[in-house]
Amino acid sequence: MKIKKSPARIAFEVFNTLFMLFIVLITVYPMYHVVVASFSEPYQLAAHSGFLLKAYAPYEWGAYRDIFNHPLLISGFMNTVIIVVGGTALNILFTSLGAFFMSQKGPMLKGVVAVMIIITMYFGGGLVPSYMLVKNLGLMDTRWAIILPGLIGVTNLIILKTSFQAIPDSLTESALLDGASYLQIMFRIMLPLSKATIAVLVLYYALGHWNAWFSASIYLRDRAKFPLQLAVKQLLESDSKFAGDFVASKHAQLMKYGIIVVTSAPVIAIYPFLQKYFTKGVLMGSVKG
Asked: Quick one: pLDDT at residue 86?
């Protein structure tokens, strides 16, 4: 049966559709502009102003060739892969251990630990104490200086703890009666049943590592250890001593667009594969009523 819509309802749907199309346009166009500009003819692109609807011919792919041949970007990409993979694995491991401890009933000093964790959400030592701590631990100019200070995200810990608490206690009790250790319970019961939440946290942590550059700029001095985002920052600053021929190249403007594409594409490519876990993962990790 077809429901007759009132004029007000029709007007609302038309306005809502146009508004959503506008939101999509202002979201998608900047990405389209960057991609199209990255292989346009550089001199025509420099003279262009306003909206860019198509690439200027003849198409230039030299910028991408220069990007993938630049030693600082190559080493930066490899360093970022190491940091993202290793850092995210450690993040998930220690966040899971902390969440499992906080989700159990009766551990000693659980309340004290919970208060200490909550305090870190509102108060921080600041940059200088963090720098002194990293320096005194001997982590300067190492990848550990980037990974260890943010090993556990408090918000992610709370999300995973709530997800663990949603799992029936009967499963844990049955496993204990069968002789399973707490680590076996966590790895064989808790984590598999919370894979949606884990997938969301993997994306959160990995995205944080992928985009991180500030901590690397403070703690790293060796260019060979620079992550990708810091390498990009150094190269895009025209007055940087590391820029060199990069900025002087006729492809300089195209390379800036190309770098944005290269650094954003892996993250954009991952989203569709993890999107199905978002709603379920966040809901499972939401505050229980």
From this structure: 94
